[in-house]
Amino acid sequence: MEAEGPRDASEKEEEDSEESRQQDLEDGEKSDISKDPETEKPKEFSTEGKEELEKESTEGTILGDNLSQPDLADGEKFDISKDPETELDTEKPNVSATEGEMEVPENGSSDENKPRKGSDQEDQADVEKFDSSKDYAGEQDAEKILEPSGEEEVKSSAHKEPLGEEVSATPEGQKGVEKAVESAEADTSNVQESKSTPSKKPSGEGEVPPVPEGQTERVEKRVEGAESDSSSTQEDEEQEEDTEKSPEPEKKPEKLERKISETFFYNYEDLCSQPFVTSDSGIPINLLTLIHSFGYDCTKSANLQLLDSQTLLYVAGNQLVLLDLKTKYQSYLRSSSGGGIGIITVHPSKQYFAVGEKGWKPNIIIYEYPSLKPYRILRGGTEEAYAFADFNHYGTLLASVGSSPDYMLTIWDWKQEKIVLRSKAFSQDVYKVTFSPENEEQLTTSGAGHIKFWKMAHTFTGLKLQGALGRFGKTAVTDIVGYVELPDGKVISGSEWGNLLLWEGGLIKVELCRTGHRPCHNGPVNQLVLDEGELVTVGGDGYIRVWDFETIDAADSVDDTGLLEMEHMNELLVGKNVNLSSIMKIHELGQPIWYAQDSNGAIWKLDLSFSNVTHDPECLFTFHSGKIEAMGVSPVTYLMATTALDHSVRIYDFIGNCQLTEIKFKQGGTALTWAPRVVNPKGGLIAVGFEDGVVRIIELYDPRGLAIVAGRTNVGNAEMRLKQAFKPHTAAVTALAYERNGEVIATGSKDKTVFFFAVEDKYEPIGYICVPGPVQALQWSPPSHAESMLLVLCENGFALQVPAPILGEQDTVSTYEIKDLPIQYFHFCSIKSRIKREEEIERREKKKQEEEKARLAWIKKQQDMGLEIEEEPEAEPEKEEPLPPIYIPQEPSPIVCGFYSAPGKFWLSLGGYDSGYLYHCAFSPIQHQISPESRQDEPFEVIPMENTDDNPIQRISFCTSKLLMFCGMKDGAVRVYPLQDKDLSADMMNGYWSFNMHDNDYGQIQAIYSSYDDRFLVTCGADSNIFTFNILSPEDIQRELKAKVPSPRGDLEKEKTAEDIEDPSAYSIENAKRKKEYDQIMKAAEDKKNKKRQELIILRHEFHHLLQRNMELPKHMQLHREEFEMDHRIREEMDRQTAQRIQLVQKELAWDQEKHRIGLQKLQSRFRDTLEFDTVVVRAIGSNHQISTYRLLAISERYYKARKQSQTGKRRTSKLGKEAEQRRESQKETSQAAGVSEEAMEADKLKKRPQLQGAIGRFGGNRLEQIRKNMEKADRAKAKIMQRRKEWDELYKSKPSDNYENPKDVQDIKEAQENMGDFKLKTATNYKIPEHMRMNAEKKKMQLRSLEVAVHEKKLTMNKWIISLRDLKVAIIEEIVCLVQELKSIQSALDASEQLPIPPIPQLHPEETPEKKFQYDNNILLKFKQEQEHKQRLSEQVEDNASFSVFGGKFLHAPSLKEIDSPSRGSSVRSMRIASSVTPMQPKVFEIEKAEPTEMELEILKREKIRNIYLQETLIKRINELVVTFDAELHLLRHQKLKLDTQMKCADLRHITWFEELLLLKNFEKHEDTLQERVNNLSNEVEEMQWKLDNYLSQMEDKKYEIAKLQEREKALYATFQASLGENNKFASFLTKVLKKKIKRIKKKDVEGDRDEEEESDEESDDESSLESDEEDSGSDDEVFDDSVCPKNCDEALFENTLQLREKRLDIEEALVEEKKVIDNLKKEYDALAKKVKVVEASLDTAEGELEAFQREKQQRLNELHVVVPLKLHQVEYVVNGELPTDLSQTLVFTNQSLEYLQQRIMVLQHEKLDQRELYKQARQQHKQLIRDRREIEIRIERLEENCNQLMLMKFGRMVDLEALQTLSVNINLEELKMKMMEKEHIQAQELKNWEEKIFELRQRLMLLMKENTSKLQQLNSFCIEKQRLGMKLDALQNNLGAEFKGPRKAEIQERERLITLVQLQAQEAEVLKEEITILSRKDGRIFPPPQPPPDTKILN
After folding, report:
1. How far is CA 704 from CA 715, 836, 1040, 1370, 1569, in A?
2. 1333 in helix, strand or coil?
């Protein structure tokens, strides 16, 4: 909190408050808490206290040191006066921050003497006059009385210290004692007001004599604080710098810890606020005494607490009310500060309760219950008001949070009155703070748009309060009113929209709602309670719901919406119009009872046991909800009536302190007045105005006075009934006033009218006047005035005076408005700024006069002393500050209230800028010359009202004797001004009595009245509170006083209840009259129109008669139609005007037409375009059968795509499968490459053949052709050999191993073993779901989409068939129409007796062509318009609710032909064609002469007759056939549709089932995906490892194959060596040793070796080192011979060959060693990987088991879903004792096909078993035969091999490799190199030739350049010679010139230099050309351009 500056620096504020301080000090002498100014002794003091005080004063020690322990234990209260020696308030210790913390200035004084902001009671605390020359100790906190501390005496100079409990000074006793810090600095300016600023001196504070200065070091401050978090402001951190840091311990064992005694109490009388009485006013302080509180601020947060089962605690304004539920008795505790009460909370033990005040630096007072004594006072917790407070679970700590502006969160050690921790809670309103019930180091705060989680953390700097703001994330930000902490640290809160939010870790874990995404409450959740393992939520919708705590605690979101649906366990609807804000629990007789606070004005008693004997909610008390708008007091008894916007009117007995009755209406009340005695002598009439403009006259009576009627029960003491209701206004009624004689009542409203009614048995309207602004108040002139005048006060600054109108004198035929009533206007003009200006001028003049008097006095003094006074130069006048400007607010200040003072004069109280004064005004005699709006009237007298600049007087009333004026203030205070005279004056208004009763912030007084006998005063405020007071002392009240309810009238029972006006939109009296007049005018106009229409009808009939007579005349005498026109121009003009009108109407209706067209288009796009098929009903022609289409909506494309994907059945290969497949393929390719490496090498060679052939083609020749043929031959042989090897390899690879088994057979055997004779049901516990039958949400969605598409297609197909049937009917009708026409023409030639009845023509029903409903033309639209107008007229006649200003209607513009869509045009044209075809053809009538027919003619007629009869029968038969055929088609299609309907119904049932499965699968999807992903990862890992194992195996096999090849090569080498030795070689032994000798050699490193090293693996990197052979292991024989020299007589070639073979042998051995090393490494890696594979496979098995168990669980949940299977009775074969059982739950539904298949499967398996046995026998025989064949083939192979070897020996003499022999050819590499060499030579020759040509060309260029340069040199030489000649000539001619021309010229020198440079450049160019020639003579020469100098213009020129 921001601390204020030092007191001595606040000079300006001291000057401003000096006057009020003096008044307070003077008045303080009369206060009961003041001290005697002469003796300075306390007035209230016990004898023992006086003795102790005197004793301690003389000894100079602390009072508490000599107080006895029993006195403190008894809790005796002390009131310690001020120091009698210093007459100053000694400073008390400041405990607002920490335990025992005190400000101890070294100089022993403090200057904190600044007046406090707040109520008048705070100012009254200073009860003495101070000497301005002294420093004053400001008001300090209440002193804590401490117990004595042994022999130690703690003393302080000019400082008080509380007494402390005795604390041991031993080291053991010092373990729990915190050490003190250094004392405060001497500079008192650093003392902050926040450390010692109580709003009033509390009781129990004592005065302690000063301590000697030598003892001040022993005073210690104990600081235990904590740092605030980063959200605290900088000012807070600076102010808390000394209070929040943990103290550093000092090793001083003598330090003591001071604590407040447990038995210490404050004095309530010294704490509570007292009325303010101005000094010397003579007003008794007990002028008003509170009797009872009738209201309850139900909208205040947490304004209902329980002290025990029979005592309720709540706040009423500045009072704390304790209500006894049994006796209904109220006890009161007043606010200590007078600023109001912010919060209340009760200790968990119910022994204490805390009251948080409001005002400047408010306190929290802890009261003890039931003694109601103040126990502790907590100071400095916030700036202005407390918003919430809460005790922890054990009651040791208290958390409070302040309201605006600081929002300070404070943790208190309340018993020691110290702050433990504090921090700024938030930057917006904070509604609530609570401790966690499980962990008291955690707190939670919530408020506007936030929730915050707090933790008390121990840091290296001490205990710290850390807050974490909750983040809403995707959830909308909401105000959080209710929440509750869960045991595990989570928090569940409510929201504005009614859902519950579960918080964890500062984030929303899940949002809870009811099923169907319905909110938990229909409105905000105001409170959450965790009670006995259940969560109780209290909602603003009147419901209390109970939820399962475990379900909520384990809740988690299941989708991206973050919502979780759940249902409550129990619920209680308290009431329909109930808004619960909080509930409290108490145990009554062992049973839990809940009390609820209803924000709509009630207190409920609830039973939440939810058992069979649960009681219904009981409403204990009802109150007004919200602001009380008006109040009236009975003129004859002690009754009052109130009304508010809660739609109720209530009657109270303020003697009996009870509510008698109430009545409710549809609208809220806004004004009320009680009819005076002259109107109703019994005092039983009340006039109430409402917000809809209605005024209701309500009659109050005692129902006990009525005759006893059977059936009437619950007769109360009073009842109200509506006597009359009328509506004079259209807006809220704001004022009601009866005329002094009771003959007229005036009503004022916000609609700026005042209505007058004659007061009779039934109120009759007189008329109304209009006023310039909304009416604020009405007052009739008192009886003392001669004339009865009405004072009308308007909100916008106008005041009017009108006389009372008389009934019957006004003309009310057409309107009730009174226009000739004389009105006087007063328009208030602000003069406040002028008053302030005049006061400032007067103050300055007074100051100047005082300065002049002081100067003259000084001069006189100097003169008297005989001193000469030098004339001082006139000082320049100081620049005065400018005077306050004249200010008039743009918006007039509102008039709040006013009253008459004399005829034509009145007093006004204004709000806004002009508040602070009472203005005496008068109506000007000049009224008609100035308009009311332009008037600027000023008051002629002003009375300043003290402390009302920002607190205007809201209501003023007088007692009947006019000796007391009661004022209701805006801040809720009640002021009483005693009046000696009936006229007000400034002197009279100086003294007043004031007391804050209603809430200071929002409790402005709405009405204040005294009772009819002036014994009582009643007030009501905007804070819902109603208070009654005794005027003067309570002893004056007589016990026999009792309120009397008026008795009922005699004819009351016979009267009918008055008709009420419930419709808010009903006509007012004036509007009803205007409507009636308007109706009469309209009726007269309609009569006139009808008369004219009748005349036109008569004239039209006469004209038609003339036309008919004209037609009867002969043609030559008839007049043409044009001749009837008297003037054709008249018709033309009429047509033109008609066209113009039509065009004008079209323009006027263009916007509406476009609007309706767009609207129609939108409707069609919304409802028609999405409709693929509407319902079309096709009826049969000859029967009543019908068939209808399905109403189909167009299906989206995604459904078709989904179905296509499902139909393809292609399962996408996962990435894992693809990788595995790639690995298998790479493994296969690797094995193939390892097996045919040689073939691959040969294939590479074959690929190079085309290149060689190309080279051969380029360089042709016989040799090359021969090489090519040899190579082709060898290639063919090699290709043949390779093909044969490949076939052998494939054959061997296809050979199965001895233990090989077909995988398909293995799988079939396994499946047969698992399922043999076992058909598992899906409900079985061991049912294993096959892979292809496993279902997930995506597959189920695909199924649903496929089903929807299939259903849609079937319905679409059926609809198409039905539409085609409808088209067929249309065609049949057209054909029948034609046949009927033909039949009629035939029957016209037949006699009537021969005519057969014509079949009726079928008609299309409207439902068969529903599209025609959307086709319209002008006639249809006009007809529709007429129907709508007819309906409107009927509704007007029935409801009579239409506006009288709007009549008639508009015609719709008929669409043109272009506007009608093509289908409409087509149907219209077709209908016209049909209609035209139906029109019967009139037979032609020929007039012939009658003659006798001849026989021939008779015969012809006879034949014609027969033919016509035949045609007649044929046509009728054809018509019947068409009808029968169509009906048959319809019957057939109808039968098919019925089947399809059955299928569709089954599909719908299946869709429902699948959708339920989908919802279930979505719940399982997340966990299933997790398990599946784990299985996939493990499978992938296993496959990868298996692939590596297979790779290792293949590599090992390859290496083994390489080793075998190397071993074969080694054997071949030894065989070659033996063959080279020949037989009987004497050097065989020597050469064998040479061959086998191990030597040391170095590996060759060449380019190819380097490349190989780059490609080799890391394992082969060791081969780079030299290979050494150990010669010591070669044997002793190695030293006998020397292998470097060939022995004599030994073939040198054989020796060299042996050395070469030895090198090869060593190479082979080295390769063998390396291969074996590689195999060993691969084996180690293989073994390690195999172990890992086992571990991973075990994990995979576990994961698959978990997945399988999950699949089984999911299947079980799916099995729980109900599936509808329609069955017929013949399908049920489950019969018990020959009857169908009633319970079919144990039956199994099985299809017939499956049952038949299983039955047939038995026979199939039997036959299959026999077949398999026969097949087994055949296989065994075949196996034996194959074994015999194999043996024979092996023998044959051996014979052929022997034969081949013999033939080879015979031909070659030895065994040779036939394949090598066949593939023997030229050296391909050598030939390729030769070809390449030839090609290179050819290319180089071509390049050389090109270079020679370039050299020749460049030489030619060089020659040309040299010639050109030579010619230029010659020219230069000639120029030089010419120059020389000319120079000599010039020299000779100018020989006699001056010396300046004798030397060489500058131009010549420059020319010479230029030429030299040119020669040098040319020489350089020549050198460059030579170099180029030399370079070009080489092959790889490159030419660089010579360096070019920058061009020189002179050279070029």
Report:
1. 7, 62, 21, 82, 78
2. helix
Give me 1232's structure tokens.
């193939």
Does this model's pTM top 0.85? no
The amino acid present at 1207, given as its one-letter code, is Q
Rg (CA), the chain: 60
Least confident among 109-118, 1052-1061, 1714-1723: 109-118
Which tokens sit at 44?
Answer: 């209230």
Dist. CA 676–CA 783, nearest whole Å = 13
Task: Please give the DSSP secondary-structure letter assigned to residue 1413.
Answer: G
Tokens (6 digits) for 1620: 């080279």
pLDDT tens for 1643-1678 read 544 444 444 444 444 444 444 333 344 333 444 444
Structure tokens at 478: 């909401």
Residues 6+ apart with CB under 8 A from 1073: 812, 814, 815, 816
Report the C-alpha gap between 1842 and 1840 in whole angstroms: 5
Residue with tokens 């032609």: 1484
Asked whether the beta carbons of 181 and 223 are under 8 A apart, the reply is yes
Q: Are strands 408-413 and 418-424 parallel, antiparallel or unpaired?
A: antiparallel
Q: Is the dihedral of CA 1697, 1699, 1705, 1710 positive or negative?
A: negative
Instruction: For residue 884, say if its preceding peptide bond is cis, omega within 30 degrees of 0.
Output: no
CA 573 – CA 541 distance, rounded (Å): 9
- Sign of the CA dihedral 1625, 1631, 1635, 1638? positive
Q: Cβ(1563)–Cβ(1757) under 8 Å?
A: no
Can you spell out the DSSP letters for 1737-1752? HHHHHHHHHHHHHHHH
Choose among 202, 364, 344: nearest CA to 272. 202
CA proximity to 1729, closest of 1580, 1579, 1581:
1581
The answer to whether 216 touches 145, Cβ cutoff 8 Å, is no
Q: What rounded mean pLDDT belongs to the chain?
A: 77
Find out whether 385 and 300 touch, Cβ atoms under 8 Å: no
Smallest Cα–Cα separation from 90: which of 162, 9, 23? Answer: 162
List, in sequence order, every residue forming a beta bridge with 1391; answer none if it has no partner: none
What's the CA gap between 777 and 1813, in Å, rounded?
Answer: 117
Task: Say how many Å lie between the first and final Cα of the chain, rounded.
Answer: 95
DSSP string, 1639-1696: --------HHHHHHHHHS-GGGGGGGSPP---GGGG-GGGGTS-TTSPPTTS-HHHHH
Q: Assign residue 1616 a region (left: φ > 0; alpha: ψ between -120 and 50; beta: otherwise).
A: alpha
Q: What is the four-CA torsion angle of 1824, 1825, 1827, 1830, rounded to 10 degrees?
A: 180
Structural tokens at position 1737: 């496979």
- For residue 635, CA distances in Å to 59, 640, 1013, 1759 come to 67, 9, 9, 80
DSSP state of 664: E
Helix or strand holding residue 1733 (H, E): helix 1692-1759
Tokens describing residue 912: 């806004």
Q: What is the pLDDT of residue 1776?
A: 79
Q: Over the stretch 576-595, which tens digit does the pLDDT of each residue have?
A: 889 999 999 998 888 889 99
Q: Where are the alpha helices (DSSP H) in 88-155?
A: 120-123
Give dist(CA 1107, CA 1125) in Å, integer: 12
**Residue 239 has what pLDDT?**
41
Which secondary-structure segment (H or E) carries 633?
strand 628-633
CB atoms within 10 A of CB 1472: 10
Position 1063 confidence tier, pLDDT thresholds 50, 70, 90 = confident
Cα–Cα distance for residue pair 249/235, rounded to 1 Å: 27
User: In this structure, what token pair is assigned to residue 1808?
Assistant: 């299959």
Q: How many other β-carbons are positioned within 10 Å of the β-carbon of residue 1526?
A: 21
What are the start-end ranges of the E strands in 832-887?
Answer: none
What one-character-per-residue DSSP string does 472-510 give?
Answer: -TTSPP-----EEE-TTS-EEE--TTS-EEEEETTEEEE
